[in-house]
Amino acid sequence: MESRTKDAFAIWVTGLPASGKSTLVTSLKAQLADRGIDVAVLESDVLRQIFTLHPRYDEQEREAFYRQMVYIGTLLTRHGVPVIFDATANRRRYRDQARQQIPRFMEVYVDCPLETCIARDPKGIYRRAREGEANTVPGVQSAYEPPEKPDVVVDGDQDMPQAAARRVIIRPRRGIFATTIALTYLLVTCPGEYHCGWSARVRRIPVESKSNHVRKLAPKVNIAHREDPPACSCQLHPIASGKQRH
Fold first, then answer.
1. What is the pLDDT of residues 117-139, one digit of tens each?
2. 178 belongs to a structural domain
3. Count of domains observed in the chain
4. Sign of torsion, CA 105 167 145 25?
5. Is 147 helix (H, G, I), strand (E, B) or coil?
6. Domain end point (choices 109, 139, 170)
7. pTM attached to this predicted model
8. Handedness of CA 147, 153, 158, 164 (dihedral sign)
9. Looking at the structure, do residues 20 and 119 belong to the same domain, yes or no?
């Protein structure tokens, strides 16, 4: 039986705190689910509740935490589970660990002005830094190292999350979605003896399903009838239109 490992990929969404990472991840997860891809989201805040009950957020603790996070993500991808990392990971070396261990890896940078992040501050991170309760906030007291060559850059101040998520999906790096999803248009035409003129442009059909499931997907796509055809053996025309016009 063929392994599912080749179908697993990982996307790391990085950016300053409050830059819009989680909003993008939520939209990205939903759009992938619409395409039949169920991803596991590894969110740093959630994992810290398990790994570091009383986090210090210093360099030593972050080093250990991101090593654990990358290990979990790598393990999931090796067992065929796609992963999205939702984490600032302020040092490049944290994210590079995942890049080195996961063949199908993609890095998305949510670029957002610091002043916008501070104005948002939904978790009070910047407020605590301002009041002296936190002293290692990335972008303020600790350095944040943006990706040198991100696969996709999202404007966290201007881009709509739904549109940004679509851009992430349609611009995969090195075919990380290979065999998982095809992000192309497929022109389907009548294969019958009379060439009745039935045609459709089918968007985002899984690669492995093009030959087997076109008929099943046909009712869901836009159908163009170029003429009222004669009786045809293709059977696609009536199935696609929902009307017995042959």
1. 999 999 999 999 999 999 999 99
2. no
3. 2
4. negative
5. coil
6. 170
7. 0.71
8. negative
9. yes
